[in-house]
Every structure is written in C-alpha cells, then in structure tokens.
User: Fold this.
Amino acid sequence: MRFLPLIGVLLFVSCAKNQRNGTALAEIGEINIVHQDSLNLTKLNSVIADNPISGEALFKRAKIFHKLGRHQEALKDVEQASGLEPNNQQLTFLKSQILFKLNQLKESVLTAELAAGAGLESPLFYTHLSKLYLEVDSLNLASQYIDEALKVMPENAEALRIKGSWFLKKDSLGAAVNVLQQALLLDKANPESYDYLAKAYLKSDGRLDSAVQVTERGFLQEGSDENIGLWHNRGKIMERLGKQDSALRVYNKVLEISPKASFVNGDIANIYMQYGNFTKAFETFQLAIDKSSKEKSIYLRAGYCLERLQRYKQAQELYLKAQRVFPGDEDFETSYQRMTSLVERIYRSVDI
Assistant:
C-alpha cells in the first residue's frame, strides 16, 4: 500500500533498531554484526583514504557515525556518497535521518520528500513518514502509515513508539502506555524507549513517580547523555516538583546539546513568566520564533509578554507576523485587531 506524501508538509524523522516477530530486522544500511570487523571505523578510514570515491565505504562509515551520534561527520560522508550515487534511495533516507538528528528540520523534510518521490516503499519508510505526519498533527495520515508498517512488522520497537505517540496525540493515555511499554520491552537498550514511555506517564494523572523512574532508567543506557528527550523529561519533572531553578539548568543542558531545539526556549520562557520577568520571557520566546518555531502558543505567549510590558506596537507587529505563519487563525486576527485599536487610541491621545 502506498500513500502520496504532501510536499512541504512533512516535518521531522527518526529511525531506530527494528524487530519483526522477535527477529532483528536490519534497518536501511544497518551494520551486520557478523561483518562488524570489516566495517570497523579504522578499516573504513583506510579504505576511504585509498579510494575517496568509494560510495559504499562512505555510506557504511556514515551509518557508523550516525549510530555513534557523530552526526556532522555522518552528514559529510552521506553527502559525498550521494554525490557519487545520486539515485540511491537508501542514502537519501539515511541523510534525512541524520538531518533530523541535527535539527535541520526543513532540510530533513525536503530529503524525505526526495525519497518518497523516488518511490521508496518499505515498512521502515512508512514508520519514517508516520512520524513526520505526526509532528505536523496530520493524525489521519500518520495513522495510515504506521498501521501499514505494523502489519508487516508488528514487533518493531520504533513503529510501536510512533504508534504510542499517536495515541498520546489523541489523548488515549492508557493505550499509549500499553504500546510504549511493549516498545520498551522490545528495545531496552534504546534511550528513546524510556523517553517515550516517560512522556506518556508525564501526561497521565498520578504517574509522576513512574515518569521519574523510567526517565532515570533511560539515563543508564548507552548514548543517553545526548538524548534531549530524556533531558527534557527531567526538566518537566523538576517543574512538576516546583524546582524551577533546577528545571532551568536542565533546559539549558538541552540547548547545549541541541541549540536548535526551539521547544525548550518555550519552556524556559514559561519559567521566566512565572517569575514575572516578562522582558526575559519575551526575549526567550523570540529565540524560539527566530528558530522558525511553528508552535502557535509560542507566538501567543510572546504577544502576552509584550502586552504586559506595554509594548503594544511591537505586539501588533508580532500578531501580524503570526497571521502569516498561521493564515486564517482567528486568535491572531482578533489579537491583531485588538492591538491595532489600542495603538490607534494611544496615538490619538498623544495628538490631543
């Protein structure tokens, strides 16, 4: 079954180890343990030094770099390999995954669309597309893709994580927890399994203790130090415990790992708002907007801060900008008209 993705709509992509019916399924380009020695980085470095246009060696090294979290090096290799093999769909898929990890979201979208346009069809790619649609709240398409993927690989941990996230978007918290618990059992070494399940617990009433336990178990896994999802969960936990200063430190850690993570700027700004520091809150919301945040609440809260600061003309301009980002949105239209009327009254009173 194939669905046609909408160009320019997709956002985000992630992929992880996969399983089907209890047997490991290699994702695109996954390293075969039997041939681990032949794919050793040192050996690949030698191969590439002797033959810089070896597309296969560049692809294998990019995959290893990607798994090790060395995404900039992975991107360099995969781009060089793609130049040698421009029609290789596996390279295109891998590049999209790497770009996502680097938070280059627009570029990841375009790359994923290239793979889709080239006719790439696989349950892994369906999982990939489902996550993209999920991130832009195209829940029907996300559901179609992930259900197709799960028909082929019902015990694929990444597909189950995406299905669990879909349930979270639908506020089906019980179903989300059940699916994400299953995903964790299938992929206990992956920090993402703990990240997703902890997020479900954080949304569930009375499950904060479970969220704490799962998050901290996640930090015991290899590679967890760079997992911004786990760090973000820890920050949310600190907030729920009333430890705002600790939460700020954790959120800044997320930005240290991933400077383009605009959603964290919103969390930081919210804490400044709680402190009544609307100047600092607005500046932090503005950072999220500058990172091309498409989150409506970021604009609304930034405008609120400007109004509290009595910077009405600037608030008017912000709401006008928001209308271009969210065309037809009644909240921004109403806010813009309200600020326009207020600014006109202020100017008239000055003239008088």
Observations:
- The chain has 18 helices and two strands.
- Residues 44 and 84 are 17 Å apart (CA to CA).
- Strands lie at 18-20, 23-25.
